[in-house]
Amino acid sequence: MTTTRFAPSPTGHIHIGNLRTALMNYLIARKAEGTFILRIDDTDPERSKEEYVDGIKRDLEWLGLHWDRLERQSERLDRYADAADKLRSMGRFYEAFETPTELDLKRKKQLNMGKPPVYDRAALALSEAEKDALRAERGDGVWRFKLDQERIEWNDGILGDISIDAASVSDPVLIRGDGQVLYTLASVVDDTEMGVTNVVRGSDHVTNTATQIQIIEALGGTVPAFAHHSLLTGPQGEALSKRLGTLALKDLREQGVQPAALLSLMARLGSSDPVELHGDIEDLVEGFDISRFGSAPTKFDAEDLFPLTARYLATLPLEAVASHVAAAGAPDDMAAQFWDVTRENITTLRDLEGWWSLMRDGAEPQIDDEDKEFVAEALALLPDGPFDGDTWGQWTAAVKAQTGRKGRGLFMPLRKALTGQSHGPDMSALMPLLQVVKARS
User: Fold this and answer.
1) What sections of 8-162 are H helices per DSSP?
2) In sequence order, what are the residues at sequence separation of 6 or more whose Cβ sits closer than 8 angstroms to the Cβ of residue 274?
């Protein structure tokens, strides 16, 4: 059975980059009628917070990305300890004691000599007595996995054939000096024991994947099918990493972005398929193909989410937005009429309040200097309310007959005088909802 996972660290809110990883893994699992695991990477007790765990769940539920299993790495520490013991017994795990400063000096020396800055495995030459002395002086060391220095190869679902020389990579640290198990080991153990068959993640993990493949094989596991998606940039190709904090899903939700818009964009962005609005996630599942994604950095512009949101909202019946219509102030007996008039003239549901305010209180008229006399003459012909669906046509016909104006020169000044805007709903439909016309004198 196809099994995928999304493994966020609860050290902050999910942002748009995290979503890309989560969504691709979700769509692969659903298309294969497999299992999607939400795995909380909370092995760092200092930085992991329960409020972020709750936030991750809330964001995924809002998007409709429902998981089949929930796992927490903090509850599996014994499994990682067993794996570490197994690696030690195989001679593939060793303790190293260099300080960060010492490692930095080694790297600089290697670079100056034109060599790759990889760990020199000096710790392997330490005697037991020397290790005891270093522990007494510095405390416990870190534990490194001893790589077989050969080429590591796999066929990547997006990048194609990958070949990395393990001799050009440092033996990875899997356990810190304070005993904290790092992602590289925990992920391997979990993927192996949970039967994960497919892993999609960012292209910044390619080297990490190479080392994990050796760890998986050392522990007797089956290597999943890996795919590494491109990293997102800003709309001008600029690095997005510094802006990810402002692109948290909770912030986009608060700005009024709809899940359908977000999923429709992110399920196709960076692929050879066009972005199309889909209100049903099953449509996205059906059309998803990881091999259609490219390796080039992918431009993301949050502004693209708003036209998609507007188009999605325009398709919704009143029942889907009734609570928002009521919150905007429209009474029940006017809700259906109000929604029909505004649905194609809002970007987000937050815009409803402004439209109801206009209908209830009128708008500050926008009257160009050259139209002042015309508008005053026209408003004198405006009948008393209440207005109906024929009011706009009858009024403009009367104004045209008296002033001789026609076309845009007739309609635009009157729209701006009544609504304060040059664009908006059809005036015949809007007029019955106007409670007050402040422009009328």
Assistant:
1) 16-31, 50-63, 77-89, 100-112, 128-138
2) 268
CA 309 to chain centre: 15
State the alpha helices, DSSP H only, in 194-280. 206-218, 249-254, 259-266
Q: What is the pLDDT of residues 313-344, one digit of tens each?
A: 999 999 999 999 999 999 999 999 999 999 99
Are the CB atoms for 320 and 349 separated by under 8 Å? no
| Inter-residue contact 156 to 104 (CB < 8 Å) | no
Q: At what angle do helices 332-342 and 318-328 cross, to 10 degrees?
A: 110
For 197, the token pair is: 């068959």
Coil, strand, or helix at residue 426?
A: coil
| Residues 182, 43: Cα–Cα separation, whole Å | 7
Radius of gyration of the chain (CA): 31
Its pTM stands at 0.91
Picking from 163, 7, 16, the residue whose alpha carbon sits closest to that of residue 71 is 7
Cβ distance 295 to 272 under 8 Å?
no
